[in-house]
Amino acid sequence: MENKKYPSSVVIKFLACSLIGIFLFFVPISLNGKSTIPLDHIVNFVLKIPYFREVYGTLVIIIGVFLPFYKKTWNKNTTSMVFSILKILALPFLFMVLLNKGPEFLMKKDVIPFIWNKIVIPVTTIVPVGSIFLSLIISYGLMEFVGVFMRPIMKPIWKTPGRSAIDAVASFVGSYSLALLITNRVYKEGKYTNKEAVIIATGFSFYL
């Protein structure tokens, strides 16, 4: 089979975007005594903005609760109905966090405060920030390039495409929420089957 030749501009774009994406998502650097990927440093900078957690977290939850009702999509299927109801039931916990008042067993540092500070705020911050740069590793050929070399490993062991190696590395080196974001994006583009997406999301993306 004849090898396809690409214009120099395409090759340069692939190399430049891929290298920037690799640096942002996969290369730990030390800053202020903390070693993590550049994207995490950006998120940590955002989280240090005064009152960011309280204002941003509250807005995200309020919008998330009422948007389905505003768009009249809350009852389009059983899943939407269940999640819409659960979101409403979660509102009292938001006020417990903001007012720092509630049942003692819920206000212990490893219950509601932990969920708020370690899951809700970091995840809802890193996802939109990560989305800005996500195309660098998804849309310019990096996943396909890596996939060619990793297919002999990923396919027989985990039954997933070679490109899923990017998800695995993103989760281990960076953030599980970013890895889930990558998986969701690639799945919606039709590059993962239902089974592959489930394996990748549950097998590679987890909170430590």
From TrEMBL:
Asked whether the UniProt record includes Cytoplasm among its keywords, one would answer no
A single Pfam family it belongs to is: Gate
Q: Where are the transmembrane segments?
A: 12-31, 51-70, 82-99, 119-143
* Keyword field contains Membrane: yes
Keyword tags:
Membrane, Transmembrane, Transmembrane helix
User: Which positions fall inside the Nucleoside transporter/FeoB GTPase Gate domain?
Assistant: 121-206
UniProt name for this protein: Membrane protein
| Natural source organism | Fusobacterium animalis 11_3_2
